[in-house]
Give the backbone structure.
Amino acid sequence: MAAACRYDGARRTVRVGSTVVADAVPREERYRVYLSTVTSPAATPPAQGAGKRRFAKVGANVFALGTVSLITDVSSEMVTAVLPLYLVLGLQLSPLAYGMIDGIYTGATALLRLVGGYVADRTRRRKAVAGLGYGLSAVAKLALLAAGRSVPAIGLVIAADRTGKGLRAAPRDAMITLSTPPEALGRAFGVHRAMDSVGAFLGPLVALGVLALAANSFDAVFVVSFCVAALGVMVLVLFVRDRREAVPATAKVSLREAASLLRDAPVRRLVLAACLLGLATIGDGFVYLLLQRREELSTVWFPLLAAGTSLGYLLLAAPLGVLADRVGRLPVMLGGYVALTAAYLLLFGPLGGMPLLVVTLGLYGLFYAATDGVLMALAGPVLPDRLRTTGIALIQTGQALAYLLSSVLFGLAWQTWGPAAASRVAALAVVLAVAATLLLLRPRAGVATGAPPGDTAGADHPSHEERTV
């Protein structure tokens, strides 16, 4: 009979009977011992009433990080909700020019995600690196005031803001994975993304209120956004714990060791899949501009489009995180991209009026809820603790660089072929990316895995033939 297996999420150790399989043990051997126990029919059965305590393993640190993200997203979405309107209608930018700025907004500073991830792993100070990113994004909100109507200056400020996001994203997600047992990663990221989406839902509403009170002054939106972002930094400093004890105090991470991540087949497949999916995804601002033009919405109500997407994300993020832990993260993630395909097709489909807005924004919210945190949950079991932040940053960087190219290409397609043809080409690109991702991450025959059904990203580790001890 197999010995009882217990996992210590704080110390990242596995206890098999009286034996502790520590993090210092080679990763493949650790997976082999752990999986041989948890996949045995005689392994310790789940405790009764576990379904009633499905969020019990989501620790206080995850909720603290969720609070920081909630507050920060109120700030960032205040700006995001009005920026497309400000650039396209206020400054009269062409779709191609907007596509370039929109690409900068997400992708131009993507390489700094790798810098932030590597520095966080090397110093084991994830909270400090994340705090630097949150602070830089806060200051960038004020810098928008100085940029005025200068498009190059706005581009530089947006790049600085996204630099902050690039620095903070991987350390934040690494802290979530290091605060949560592997079997609960889906729900942990679901809870975090649900809290994040509360801020994303409130941000456009706050922007709408500020515009109404300040006679449509964009400067007032930027000032209030800075104040809210500063509050988020304070919450991070006071309440988030950096679980530095989760990583053994061994030699510092080297650049060579970080670069070795891509020699792992599961990591390579995840990075490639993230790039393909990012290349098939167009910016939110494009979707909202297309809806606004088709339905001839008043500029006053434009921020509510982002709020509608965030509401769907808010309602579905946590339930889909739990579903991903139960049925598999890959099916849930790919299902989200199917919803995205439907949303793109509806932009110039048979629906119109309020049904079009409700269904399209609902599908868009479903897409984010099924993909954002679930991709990080897929990556968690694949990456070693010492390189957790670097690995997450690598995946996010690949996706962000692909998104930069996607935004420019969609802006060019809109300007050349028109919005209807461009949106249909985007839908086709998503279908092709989903098919390629399914081939990349599908279960491999003869490979045992202790992950949920359909959660195949880490399947190669227990039986990596070229590395098996």
